Amino acid sequence: MVPVHRGNGSHDPLTDPRRGVETDSTERPDGADEEATVTATNQATNPVSFRPGEFEVSPDGSGRLLGSRCRTCGAHFFPIRAACSGCLGTDLDKVRFATTGTLYTFSVVRQSTPAFEVPYVLGYVDLPEGVRIMSQISGCDAEEVTIGMELELAVEPFGASEDGTPLVGYRFRPAGAVAPR
């Protein structure tokens, strides 16, 4: 991925709140700033994460969770962190996690705030990298959820920002389930 320019000299595609926005920094024959043009166009049409730094959204609508890997001991963490809780090292790489996992455990939530339709399922998903992530489970009825089921990451609508940019969040759904559009 080509870094996104935010106008302040920062070019970190993993922590930029518009991550997932592809840019093309090649020079145009007319001298216009191609990177700024593509970024402005994509910012208006491509959804962005409602939790910057936790996952990135690609132009095709797919997503990847972002985390850290300790260079000293190899431990993985979600979300991104500055220090390893295993060896206390500070030499960590930013990584993109696999998009599939296995349901470790779950709970069916039957009472919630008015903002959430009930029932819904919250579960812990084990990723191949050894990270366990809490997530809402979607794409099936609560009665269909079973411990050990294979899940895949899904990017789903979550509303809009103050400027109207579509916001998305992540959930896990049964592998092969069709995502809502």
Overview of the molecule:
The protein is globular, with a radius of gyration of 18 Å. Among the domains are: 1-46, no CATH class; 99-174, OB fold (Dihydrolipoamide Acetyltransferase, E2P), CATH 2.40.50. The chain has one helix at residues 34-45; strands spanning 48-49, 55-57, 63-70, 76-77, 92-96, 100-109, 120-126, 132-137, 150-160, 166-174. Residues 1-44 have low confidence and may be disordered. The strands form 2 sheets. The protein has a 6-stranded mixed sheet with strand order 1-10-9-6-7-8, with helices on one face. Strands 2, 3, 4 and 5 form a 4-stranded antiparallel sheet that branches. By secondary structure, the protein is mainly beta. It has 1 helix and 10 strands, in the order αββββββββββ.
Number of E-state strands: 10
**N-to-C SSE series?**
HEEEEEEEEEE
Ends distance: 25 Å
What value does the Rg take, in angstroms? 18 Å
Spatial strand order of the main sheet = 1-10-9-6-7-8
Uncertain regions: pLDDT < 50 for 5+ in a row?
1-44
CATH class of the domain at 99-174: Mainly Beta
Instruction: Give me the secondary-structure category.
Output: mainly beta
Overall morphology: globular
